[in-house]
Amino acid sequence: MRILKAGILYFALVFGAGFVLGTVRVLFVEPRIRDETNFKEKV
Question: pTM of the full predicted structure?
């Protein structure tokens, strides 16, 4: 039972870290990179 709890905790930590870092990347890092490179998306 301890190993199951440890696995769930590990999953939650990794999933949470990925969610937070992905949100930061999309909201803050990507717009700055796009502005610096004058990247225009083709629709």
Answer: 0.66
